Description:
Blueprint (H helix, E strand, L loop, with lengths): L7 E6 L7 H15 L3 E6 L11 H7 L7 H12 L2 E7 L7 H10 L19 E7 L4 H6 L2 H17 L4 E7 L9 H21 L1
Parallel strand pairs: 1-2, 1-3, 3-4, 4-5
Amino acid sequence: MNTTTTRTALIITANPEHHSLTNATGKAFAEGFHAHGGETRILDLYDAGFNPVYTSADRAHYLGKADMPKDVAAIQARLAQADVIALVFPIYWYTMPAMVKGLFDRVICRGFAYNADGTPGALAGKTVRVIMLTGGPESWYESDGIGEALDNQIRRQTFMKYCGVKDVEIVYVDNLSMGDDDPAKREAAAKQLDGIRQLGASLA
């Protein structure tokens, strides 16, 4: 009897342009994952109309005075069902854009991702890949301390320490030029997308 279960992936993207390289990267991950037997879902935070602003309702939940806001609970349910989570977003001013910060503030929160006593919650044991798109080279981020700051904030502190995610890595899609149609740069970007497909395939 075949007892193999299908692994599922939730790919979350954040870019206001529907045909952006951010969304193409998320799609490439999904293609690779699906091609190797996995089941995928893509959540485009802009298409979904996600509100990244931390509200009084979020605060009331944090204080134990109200239920989780319904829009937050809907995304949390999708995260909880996934074996693999890929967050795909561009770097703005050396950090995540506001839409993604809102995802961390509102969704990856106490009462879901970790508990009031500090123990991990619904994300513990999952596989997470944080795929960041940037105009600069990965080597620059490594040499200038920014890569270390991002790794510490996102990977080590948020996912590993608070959420109990052991299998979490940051992946760069780098050396990009917004709106640049130079053939050589487009070819280089296409090769990186092939690498993202392979990454998705390896986790299915």
